[in-house]
Amino acid sequence: MSDDLPADWIAPPGLLRRGAPAAVLAALPGARAVGGAVRDALAGRPVHDVDVAAPLPPEGIAGRLRAAGLRVFETGLAHGTVTAVLDREPVEVTSLRRDVATDGRHAEVAWTTDWREDAARRDFTINAMSLSAEGALWDYFGGRADLAAGRVRFVGDPATRLREDYLRALRFFRFQARYGTGAPDATAVAAIRMAVPGLARLSAERVWMELKRLMQAPDPCEALALMAEAGVLAAVLPEALDLTLLGRLVGIGAPVEPLLRIAALLPAGAAEAVAGRLRLSGEEREGLADLLSLPRPTPGDGDAVLRRLLAVRDHASVLDRTWLGEAEQGGEGWVALRQRIAALERPVFPLQGRDALAAGLAPGPSVGRLLAALRGWWLEGGCTAGREACLARLRELAAGRPEG
């Protein structure tokens, strides 16, 4: 273990002094909190979870944690990572590492006991600090000063760090959106601009995850504009138009929902291409398609229109589309519109296939066609017709159509 002295002392966040993090730090000699917990504690932001590093090989870490009564899951043993759990609270614990070989996507690592060597392989100075349970802070590359200045800066040479893992280009913009103030680091941006071709080597899943995380920033617009200027946005989201609609969406206080914000960047027909290329989940694919293609409620819509929209998709989907409508159209009445939508009960079509058969219709393809026509009539009427009215209309439709 390196015998360097801490650069400073701070009051450690409460999470380090209780629960699973405290148990992990107590079980591992020389262990420290690393990454986001340290960064956010210094920034005065809430610390929601704690990652820990220790100058021990993974097997030694796992053995000591089990001996201390924690459950251990080997979630990333090849990369030196295990997850310790106490009272259902997880803590990710990683051995100190140094890179042996990198290819722009993956790294082959070896274990070390040198904290500075481990910190040197991290992406940004604000993420390269470590903190003991007692509050001793180690800051090898000026991360605390960069954090105070709102400066996102690579550890070491930016071009070298990007060649090690091109995802760091996207991570730069995410951290710039959350922690950056003023002009971005010019050296970093220049290196990212040169590294754009390397983004093609990243997996779709990693790119999508970073885009979603960027969209969770309170206001990602400046970072996205910087991405566009550097050629990164066109490389990872070529369907994106301009940032005007997203800026309005942020300005009106729309929910911080990544899919909603992504939709604000895209033209109406882009959902399928984006979902396929970035490998969105089925739920994300459907949600993006809804946002881009389904009708958007307006303050002038009557309850019948709103009921029809709710009959097709749930309240959350309809409400999300009101935010896009407000960002596009402006004007008054949107708050009242959302209140009206929230107060409406979601209509449910009152008949199913078995009801048609019970009414005397012969089984066959005609039943599905009749129910589809009936549902169209029910929707057109504002989704107010009840079961008996729908059965009566079904009999009328059946009498006027030959059985298939």
Automatic annotation (TrEMBL):
Q: Which CDD domains match?
A: NT_ClassII-CCAase
Q: Does the keyword ATP-binding apply?
A: no
Does the record bear NADP in its keywords?
no
Tell me which cofactor or cofactors this protein depends on.
Answer: Mg(2+)
Location of the tRNA nucleotidyltransferase/poly(A) polymerase RNA and SrmB- binding domain: 189-240
* InterPro entries in alphabetical order: Bact_CCA-adding_enz_type3_sf, NT_sf, PolA_pol_head_dom, PolyA_RNA-bd
- In terms of superkingdom, the source organism counts as Bacteria
Q: Where is the Poly A polymerase head domain?
A: 32-153
Recite the UniProt keywords alphabetically: Magnesium, Metal-binding, Nucleotide-binding, Nucleotidyltransferase, RNA-binding, Transferase, tRNA processing
Please name the SUPFAM superfamilies in this protein's record. Answer: Nucleotidyltransferase, Poly A polymerase C-terminal region-like
Q: Which PANTHER family is this protein grouped with?
A: CCA TRNA NUCLEOTIDYLTRANSFERASE 1, MITOCHONDRIAL (PTHR46173)
Q: What family classification does the UniProt entry report for this protein?
A: Belongs to the tRNA nucleotidyltransferase/poly(A) polymerase family.
Please give the name of this protein.
CCA tRNA nucleotidyltransferase
The record lists the organism as Belnapia arida
